[in-house]
Amino acid sequence: METGKQITGTLIVAVFTAALGSLQFGYSLGVINAPQKIIEKHYARSLGVWSERSDSSVNDTEDMSSSETGKHPSVVMYWSLSVAIFSIGGMVSSFLVGFVGDLKGRVKGMLMINVLAVAAGLLMGLCRMWKPHIMVISGRAVMGFYCGLTSGLVPMYIGEIAPKAYRGALGTIHQLATVIGILISQVIGLDFVLGNDEMWPLLLGLSGAPAVLQSLLLPLCPESPRYLYILLGQEQEARKSLHRLKGATDLTSDLEEMRREKQEADREARVSIRSLILSSVYRRQLFVALMMHLSQQFSGINAIFYYSTAIFSQAGVSQPVYATIGVGVINTVFTLVSVALVDKAGRRSLTLIGLGGMCCCAVAMTVGIRFQNDFSWMSYVSMSAIFLFVSFFEIGPGPIPWFIVAELFSQGPRPAAIALAGCCNWTSNFIIGMTFPYIQAWMDCYVFILFAVLLFGSTVFIYFRVPETKGKTFEEIAAMFQKKRKTPTGIAELQQLKTSSEA
Length: 503
Hints:
Blueprint (H helix, E strand, L loop, with lengths): L8 H22 L5 H12 L4 H4 L3 H11 L3 H21 L3 H7 L2 H20 L6 H30 L5 H5 L1 H16 L11 H6 L3 H9 L7 H7 L3 H12 L5 H17 L4 H6 L4 H15 L3 H14 L5 H26 L1 H25 L6 H18 L4 H9 L5 H30 L3 H19 L8 H9 L5 H12 L4
Helix pairs in contact: 1-8, 1-10, 1-12, 2-5, 5-8, 5-23, 6-7, 6-8, 6-23, 7-8, 7-12, 8-22, 8-23, 10-19, 13-14, 13-15, 17-22, 17-23, 17-24, 18-19, 19-20, 19-21, 20-21, 20-24, 22-23
């Protein structure tokens, strides 16, 4: 089969290299949680609220003192900032994805921002040389800024170089690498590996390690043919890039598709973030893209990731840290299932199955936690519901929103759309991370009923408003949305966007 030849060694290397940025993203998401108590102790010592006398006391006294130290207002503030600043950095930089990707290209863009990742790793790895709380917060802020960029650039690059028949599977690689990064951080964050008093700076500093490997491999990767042809008009360079990615196959259909997309892009011109928000021409696609990301974050998945240890403890698990690692393993396995299914079952179908399954699991989780004191076997119901919740998430709602945005938009508005969707994702992530403890204190065991309601609403929205994009070209997908805009108003607005001078 001709499509079989489309998976070449160069394509595999390019996807693997780009996905190292996603691996780094996942590692940075998960690494801060395991050594929390140890980091809080070092913060307290640096802030002068931890006495050396307590440090040399017996273990029981030290554990009690450490617990009290973690509740000191200054320590709580700096710890919360260490966690939250990562999402704030991502929110800010997500608006720059289109600019960085277009400045020198997708490959050089990823290469440029690796400086940020290495700098962040050094700040955290060397935090004992100065004030740990300042160094870690600074490193987390820079790493968040890097991850906001890479979480947009990686899906953009992979989506543009992937053959149409494998675009869904390769697009899912971003999420697969992210969950592998989370799992790695959970495993090496155990106290007998690196999550201990001596090695925790190295644990945090390793956040920048994948950037070093990626920097060595990126020069071997071809630039996106769509970027070269559609944005720069370099047909010969695009042909060379396509040849490297697809091998000795007939490139006529690919070049013809890009030629048509370039003609469409020339008519519609570049669309800025402001123009995209104000325009009714792209409103339907944008609404779908943002709702896909909102459904991902407000599903409650990050409540599981951020607070899984506490949730497992509440469910009666004696060793919650290992159950949390179990969640990471399930996370990875079912992302692989999504990779295998997404180009067969389709984006819309897998998202609907995932959201519907998560809704049922959220209800089961609530029932299990509510009655676990009355029936001992209910703790198994809670645990099973958590594992199934994560499984359904990774089948569809986890990976698909990251790459479907690139499919929904043509070349003109694509960078702006990815930037807005990324900002929406990071902002939602921040809101859930900051508010979940308060919501949990308010609703207690019924907290996941709230997420069940949100999941049901998301399922209904996807069913009625999101089209299937499996096996369709970028041009065909854009046409599905634009066919309802063939009105005088729509045509006039397209002309207005074309004449806009905004970048």
